[in-house]
C-alpha cells in the first residue's frame, strides 16, 4: 500500500449505472474524452485486468504496489468466486431471559 504514502486517492465508477441512469451525462462525458484523445491531451493508461475469480490476487497486487495505474475486475457469468457463508450463531447470555418460538406460532404471536 505504498501508494497511500504519496497522498493519493483511489476511486471507482460503475459506468454501466451512469449510462443507465443518466444517458445524456454519459454521452457528454464520452464526447469530452474522445475529443481529448483526438487532441492528444490525454492518452490511455496501462491497465491490469483480473477475473473476479482471482479477486484475491488483485487485492494482493494492489497491496504490494504492483498495480499503480488502473486495475479492472472482469465479471463473467461462468466465474467461480470463493465465498465463506456466514454462520448464524445463537448466543445466550447468562443472566438473560430467553424465549424460543417455533415457526408455527411465530406469526400469530408477533
TrEMBL record:
Domain of life, source organism: Eukaryota
Protein name: Uncharacterized protein
Species per Swiss-Prot/TrEMBL record: Dactylonectria macrodidyma
